[in-house]
Specification:
- The structure is a single chain.
- By secondary structure, the protein is of the alpha/beta class.
- It has helices spanning 28-39, 71-83, 101-107, 110-117, 143-146, 168-171, 178-186, 190-199, 234-244, 253-260, 290-296, 306-322, 327-330, 367-379, and strands spanning 19-24, 51-55, 89-93, 120-123, 129-134, 137-142, 150-154, 158-160, 164-166, 204-209, 227-231, 272-275, 299-301, 333-335, 344-349, 356-360.
- The chain folds into 2 domains: 5-275, LarA, N-terminal domain (Rossmann fold), CATH 3.40.50.11440; 290-379, no CATH class.
- Helix 2 links the parallel strand 2 (51-55) and strand 3.
- It is globular.
- It starts with 18 loop residues before the first strand and ends with a helix.
- The chain binds iron/sulfur cluster.
- The site of iron/sulfur cluster has 13 residues, from helix 12.
Length: 380
Amino acid sequence: MRQKDNQVKIKKLPDLENKITVIYGSDIFDMTLKILNNINLKSHLEPNSFIGLKPNLVLNNPPSNGATTHLEIAEALVCYLQEAGFDNIIILEGSWVGDSTKAAYRDLGWQEMAEQRGVELLDTKTDDYVILEHSGHKMAVSRTATQLDYLINIPVMKGHCQTKMTGALKNMKGLISDSEKRAFHRKGLHMPIAALNVALPQSLIITDGICGDLDFEEGGNPVPMNRLFCTADPVLNDSYMASCMGYKPEEIEHLRLAAELNVGSTNLAEATITELNEARVPIPAVVPGAKVSYLEQAVDEQEACSACYANLIQALARYDERYNLSDFFQDKIKVGQAFKGEKGSGFGSGICTAGFSTFVTGCPPSTPEILDALIDYKSK
Ligand code: SF4
């Protein structure tokens, strides 16, 4: 069956589109509630709405490994919405080709949570599909997704071997059929992802930036970043994510194309970015993957906050793509509160390292600021 774009019911939330709300921490359930209360989500939703939550369960792998959405975000959303009187909630996702969504639901706690909270779980691999069309691309999309009043996307902030990063825009791929996923890859991913986001809008995004993978969507190199961020514009969301990972929005092809198709704005300078707390969260105990271990050879970390550490690791990943990371293996980059008041030569990241001959100010400095300073430092 062919369904025209204008038959998709999903509503957008324009009042929340030019705003990004960020929170740092490790109590994911509580952080999510704080964001929802801060944006007063319930006041933006019409009563008796059919609301879909779209996590990233690309495969059956725990979120601590960097690939999948933390269950606590969805659970907090369900609790918040139910308390506000919204009872028609569904969680919908389709893992990548070859992996079982049902196994991920079962093994990662989603099935148990859904049963306890009285929420429906849908494996979109088993749904009917309707054909949506945009920019010459016909796409087989989950019929249930098209029937939602609101779609709340919960992507993971992580890298991707083909598209550099995967966020709100690319996470929508879990709502198409498996054969369509294969077709997207044959078509190079970028334009089909942009077109899908025109045909099937999303209402709100809460990005899981707790410990997403450095460069692979299937995980293995989690970077503790301890943050969630929320906006109603998927392009703005992914532009912010790109910045956190040391990319410019225009370097991410599907992001650039989505902006050209007016899915949203890449203009972070004009967005209102509100941080609900300070970024001073200790680094949690995470066993680093091979790539992160390699990057850590350039780092002398002592009592760093997780945001400071994560921004530095992301900057080093981008630096390593263009230059020689071993430049810093002897002359390691200092980061962390233990360096407060210390003096020395070399490069420091963050205001705590202000006693070093070169340092990036900020608490924490952003990934682009660190990357620019590293390049400048080594070119001298
Ligand atoms: S500059 Fe120091 S206090 Fe600030 S985030 Fe970095 S390590 Fe933490």
